[in-house]
Amino acid sequence: MSQTTRTTRVAIIGGGIMGVAAQFQLAENGWTDTILFEKAELTSGSTWHAAGQIAHAVGSRVAGWINKTSIETYKRVEQETGQSIGWHEVGGFRVATTDDEVDWMKSIMGVGRLLDLPMDLVGPDEVAKGNPFYKVDNIKAAVRTYEDGHIDPSGVTMALAAASRARGARIERHNQVLGASRKGDMWLLKTQKGDVLAEHIVIAAGSYANQVGEWFGLKIPSVSCLHHYLVTDTVPEFQGRPELPVMRDNSYGGYIRQEQKSGLIGIYEGHVCPTVWEMPEGAPWAAENELFEADYDSIGDFLMVAFEKMPILAELGIKRTVRGAITHTPDGGMLVGPSGAPNVWLSCGSSIGLAWGGGAGKVLADWMVHGETSINTRSLDPRRYGDFASDHYIVERTKDEFMRRHDTPCPGKQFHSLRPLNRHPLYERLASKGAVFSEISGWERPRYFGKVGEVEQIGWGQQPWHENAMAEAKATRQAAGVIDLCAFAQFEITGTDAGKLLDRLSANRIPRQDGQMSLNHLLTEQGHFETEITIWRINKDRYFTGSPIARANPDFDWIKNHIQPGEDVQMINRSADWGMLAMSGPASRRILSQMTDADLSNAAFPWLSGQEISVADVPCYALRVSFVGELGWELHAPLDRIAQIYDALFEAGSKFGLTDLGSYAFNGMRMEKAYRASGELTTDVGPLDVGLERFVVTKDRDFIGKDAALACDPQWELFYAELHADGVDIHGGEPVLLGNRVVGLTTSGGYGYTVGKSLGWLFVKKGTPRANLTVQILNEAYPVTIHDAPLFDANNVRPRAED
Fold it and tell me: Contact at 8 Å (CB) between 279 and 223?
């Protein structure tokens, strides 16, 4: 190693908006010992050619928060540095031309209410007043915003860079990073200007993220897609009048705005996604300020619709066409947070870099400096992609996302490319019985059972499948139901120190006797939820855990990374090669007893315990637990034998009325029992915020996050609510109101099919009165009743039943 090797706390690779914003936010949090490496000039990748829109009319709270934080950050930096960011606060209209789009606009109003973003739901007359050049004859409604607009990509990037330098951070242009290797607890970067040792790495390399990730053993699911926007000749009608708001319209898959005295039209084709620099080769290192030849044949039909919507642009010439590469991911979300490699962080995969950069930088800086974020950002966690994300999947699913990005995002919307991705052994059996599937982390899971080949109808209100789910739930309560939960995170943790490790991580005491199970919450140092897992103690040196499949990678990393030097702990991730069936209902014991010699009585096999037994001649782990609040068992077994168990269950259970159960009914039954799920156990709250004090056991033990959790003065309360509304349910993310004042938001909900009530969880500010609360759904306020106990089996008798 060279004697002149430099060191830094954080090395940031990439000088576009994502990298520069991350460096600024780190400096804001006190981490100023950072170096940003850019192989050419700042912005020279994708940032420089961005159209620069930043919207307030978005579909989720986290997206709205990200955009709002970006705008606030950029304005503050402009004021601090005096460097113009070219901000045009012209507002905008997002228009609706179909009934589903109108419902979407109504749901967007809830996001605005939550984040205090000024916006109105307006009709075509108001659109015409705001933009007299836009045809409004087929517009049914629109969301009008006032404090958003568009920005100069280069100006804001340079302002952030100036603010970072003023705080002591370093930026090295024309210094390409050539490779990386691990040196002890540090990363050694090879650069054109010498070696650099860094404690942390941030990959903000845009279209180069794939190649850079390979240096750290990472597969980064990001694809460079080509996007057009066109600038017209001068528009005479724009002279002498205020700048027009930004128009967003799904009918041509894009946006129209004013660019100085010209028109600017952006198009996302809905029939094709042109990509460049595909995996594994990636972007050429020599590429700088790269643009591509326009493809008018591809965008022609969409462009004609745009001209029809704004006829004053139709007869003008096109003076500039920009077709550049912009990164997209398979689900459209950014990659912001820990990568899975030690101290390697991602801030990439951003398809709307200017809108997302400032907010993403704050998320990343909070995570790196403080160990957690101030808002729940699990949807951005790069580790949400598992082994299913092959190169082929990443490219093809990203193409699908690009083409569908201007579809109306109704609840239940799914991607249909590459389906079924994971055709596990039960898939054909379930499909032949009418299963309508959803994709969960690459796995297929039945949502409900209908007719063979049925296509699910989606929308904001209750859909026709509501009756199917109701029948499944009632059959399960009356007899028994079995649900395919092969998509499940399953770990085996062994060794003489395995119990010590798990107890050190868990707020609740882990099982102390062989065979016992417990529900455990793993907390951050700040006392907030990292995850929730079940732990079964097979013996003192052997444990089995379960958690949602989307948490497979993060949970495995969290536990493994807390193994201390010298501890005897081994971990095996069974998530890909083991499956699980959950059977619940009063007939469960009678059905299962015909397939096993094990004694299933309460005395021999009590509730919240597990045993290794043989079911239909298949060795499996049987855990007596039920997430729907019934007598029941989870049956965990090798995936290649799970169909043998499923067939035997139905052969034995047919005379008892055994039914297949889908996730819609499963969730409704979960709500009837007032069970909390991932929507309630988010990364920005802890056990005391959600009424789970009983799962925090502090006597004679210590655990990560203990002091912070106990010192917490909860600012929130979690209410279990019954919604009084016809035809609509709580989905999560809707405002909770007391009069006209926002006092919280919903976290999850669903219809309780056996109690006949619509139910939901509400996060409200502590001290909020329980009476006179409403939930805003589709821009209407519906009253709720708060309940202290589950509406089904409040005394929890049924899971313990002897029958």
Answer: yes
